[in-house]
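Example 3.2
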Amino acid sequence: MARPLRVLVVDDEPAILRTLRVCLAREGFVCETETDPREALRRIRTGPPVHIFLMDIVMPEMDGVALLRALREKGGLTQTIVMTAYSSLDRILDAYRLGALDYLVKPFESLDEVIEVIRAAERRYRRWQHAVARTLKGEGV
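Structure, written as tokens:
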């Protein structure tokens, strides 16, 4: 059985963090949360690997696009999903240009929608992980 993936959720709304922490843990993920984007960036740089990064675009301390830009500088296979309560097409497009793979609109239609998006990110991550492992073993892709 594959090891559970580590998900970091960054949002300035504690209620959303609590809900997602419980929901994702129930689905078998190791879920950590953070209200401060700068602290999230520190955790990403110094802590154990984050496989899936779920973040709000609009936060008071640091814009989510700036956080995503800093995350991209780190590199790695992190699957990034952005969330927004505002229909800011420009910010969503900026996030996509920086490597975000999907987005969710808050309030969520259902937690099933969130799980579906996270599961898709998990599948992408595992495919990349498998391809990298095969390449390192000299099997090609």
